[in-house]
Amino acid sequence: MLFESERSGDGLTLRLRGGWCIDNLREIENSLAQLNEQGRQIKLDFSGIQTLDLSGAWLLRNWLERTSQAGGRIEVVGERPSHFAFLDELLQRQSAQPGASPPSATSLRDAVVWIGRGTIQQAKQTRDAIGFFGRIAATMLRAMRSAHHLRLPSIARHVYETGIQAIPIVSLIAFLISVIVAYLGAQQLQTFGAEIFTVDLVAISVLREMGVLLTSIIVAGRSGSAFAAEIGVMRLNDEIDALQSMGVDFYEVLVVPRLIGLVIALPLLTIIADAMGLAGGALLSSMLLDIQLTQFIPRVQDALAPTTFWAGLIKAPVFAMLIALVGTYRGMQVRDSSRELGRLTTLAVVQSIFLVIFADAIFAVVFVELDF
Amino acid sequence: MSDSQPAPIISVRNLVNRFGKQIVHDGVSLDVKRGEVLGIVGGSGSGKSVLLRTMLGLQRPSSGQVLIEGREITRMSDSELLSVKRRYGVTFQHGALFSSLTVAENIQLPIREYFDASPAALESLTELRLRMVGLPVDAGGKLPSQLSGGMVKRAALARSLALDPALLFLDEPTAGLDPISAASFDELVTYLHRSLKLTIVMITHDLDTLLSTCSRVAVLVDRKIVVDTLDGIMKNPHPWIQEYFHGPRARAAQAAVADDATEQGRPS
User: Fold this and answer.
1) Cβ of B115 and A29 within 8 Å?
2) B111/A22 Cβ within 8 A
3) pLDDT tens digit sequence for A189-215
4) How many CB atoms lie within 10 A of CB A279?
5) Quick check: A90 and B136 CB within 8 A?
6) What is the mean pLDDT of residues A31-58?
7) Does the pLDDT of residue B266 top 70, yes or no?
8) Which letter does DSSP use for residue A38 in this model?
9) What is the pLDDT of residues B239-256, one digit of tens each?
10) Nearest CB neighbour to B138, from listed A53, A86, A101
11) What is the ipTM of this complex?
12) Is pLDDT at A93 greater than 80 in this prediction?
């Protein structure tokens, strides 16, 4: 306890002692709470306080104010600490403080306001998104007409960063997935004595679906997040404003090169993933099923329709566009704070993966209908 | 503590900082006395920020000692350093407010980190800090991005005062402020210094700030440091110091301060 009580004749004297400073914050609070219980007519003696800092003085002073407002009679014995003078002065200097904000209205009103605000925000976002895609389309058209607007060095950089640097991880994952597919397939098909169909299974699933889908998901995680974070940080640093003030179209220098770069890189990565997937299938077939390479290759050629490879590859540029558009769009939305940056980067990855899978589903239906 | 020669609150001894081949400080020694406002000036790249970071214990020097309240911080373990860090407050050049927290949460963060406090006490202490730096209490609910430049500096100062420090480091407190905001910030620093008997170490480029708030000035030149009173340092023959205090911008600032002084001295 940071005080001791002393009953003398007509009343109660409380002698404060110890350290009334921020280090003992919880103790100060407890002591003040107990002081409240000591009755309404007390004498306070400050002389026993060893250390007092501004925080302690402030809490003490506020407590004194509150108690005297509530009708308590507190008499101060001895000298008031010097901090009190500073606090009094502080409060006087700013007596013209604006009051608290008006109390909020009913919950029904809140609900209506909430819905209305949400609707307007959604409408605004939709408009922004359409404007964003429109601007990109216009910039692309301009870029097609002249090499200067195309920003070839920048595109090359993005092909390198999103494509070439992703080769190891994409290859590894494609290889492993096809090994898994082949392994599980071989196990099931062996019971029918049809293990040769493992080759068909691997070849078709990798070329049609697995290769492009896995590559896109990896790229969405790698590059979609990078796009959102890079552009988002540039936004936070006012770099986008700087570009605009120089009359440089930031769609042209930031968004379109990323888009074109990824549209070039993702199909190439898909081809590599396809090759690695087939290699994984071949390796497992020879080890597990005793199907040698000389047997594997003709079998793959038999299994594939002429369109199988293209049915996978044709999806890659579409997925690339989805990833690049979502990443850059979310990056452009970053405002004000680092938390926004994290939120929108996460959103970019989640949404681009979702859109890639969603688009893949549409492709699957369309291809079946077209018998492609 | 004897009156004649009180122990310095910060004592930097023979500080050497080098990065690769580049030597930033070559034997810098500096004493900061209790209760003074010390301004640190120096050209760009003269190592002001490195000196500050070394004094804060954010960076270990290549050699030399830094003593804060008599304790050697350069060789301290991280947990010991924490107890020293709790004793001082810092404001950074761009405020360095946490952008995802409101001003009030920014101020409460160090208090929560060190002490166990009830929400009511936190709120009350936040109000005090906001009042101390002259911010309206409702500014506590705002995010840093919603504040003007001057308010960001004040909010940063409020956060640095959160733990009732006896020692305050200010890095370019008035950089990027308009002259009126800068002058009122200077006034605030002087006011807090006088009322709370704070020791303040500030890095500044602003001559007005230097002339109106600082009692002593340390100049970083040629990898060394020159420390003197304001008058003394102006008479220092070093060419960079002469240029700094007697260049065209300096003369204007000094004239302005002199005008203020005569105006205040005039009987009304």
Assistant:
1) no
2) yes
3) 989 988 888 899 999 999 999 999 999
4) 16
5) no
6) 78
7) no
8) T
9) 888 888 887 777 777 777
10) A101
11) 0.74
12) no
Residue contact A94–B144, C-beta within 8 A? no
The Cβ of residue A206 has, within 10 Å, a number of other Cβ atoms equal to 28
Strand ranges (E), B185-249 = 199-203, 216-221, 224-229
Is the Cβ of A338 closer than 8 Å to some Cβ of chain B?
A: yes
Tell me how far apart the alpha carbons of residues A284 and A186 are, in angstroms, rounded to a whole number: 9
Determine which helix (DSSP H) or strand (DSSP E) holds B265, and give its type and residue range: helix B248-265
DSSP at A164? G
Q: Does B82 touch chain A (CB under 8 A)?
A: no
**pLDDT surpassing 60 at residue A287:** yes
3-state secondary structure A187-227: HHHHCCCCCCHHHHHHHHHHHHHHHHHHHHHHHHHHHHHHH
Distance, CA of A86 to CA of A91 (rounded, Å): 9
Among B106, B69, B112, smallest CA distance to B87 is for: B69
Domains of chain A in sequence order: 3-93 (3.30.750.24), 121-370 (no CATH)
**Is A216 in a helix, a strand, or coil?**
helix
Q: Taking each helix axis from N to C terminus, what angle separates A293-303 and A197-205, rounded to the nearest 10 degrees?
A: 60
B220-231: pLDDT as tens digits: 888 888 888 888
B147 dihedral zone (left: phi>0; alpha: psi -120 to 50; beta):
beta
Torsion angles phi and psi, residue A321, rounded to 5 = -65, -40
pLDDT band at B115 (very low <50, low <70, confident <90, very high): confident
> To which residue do tokens 């500073």 refer?
A86
pLDDT confidence of residue B260: 66
- Using CA atoms, how far apart are residues A193 and A180, in angstroms rounded to an integer? 19
Task: List the 139-158 stretch of B: residues with Cβ below 8 A of A.
Answer: 143-145
Of B183, B100, B137, give the one whose Cα is nearest residue A341. B100
The CA distance from A182 to A177, in Å, is: 9
Q: Which domains does chain B have, with CATH numbers?
A: 7-87+166-228 (3.40.50.300), 96-165 (no CATH)
* Size of chain B, expressed as the number of residues it contains: 268
Where is A57: in which H helix or E strand? helix A54-69
From CA B7, how far away is CA A367, in angstroms rounded?
84
Q: Which two tokens stand for residue B186?
A: 């200077």
- For B120, other C-beta atoms within 10 Å of its C-beta total 11
Which residues, in sequence order, are bridge partners of residue B91? B170
| Subunit contact B196:A97, Cβ cutoff 8 A | no
Q: B17-57, pLDDT tens digit by residue?
A: 888 888 888 888 888 888 889 999 888 878 888 888 888 88
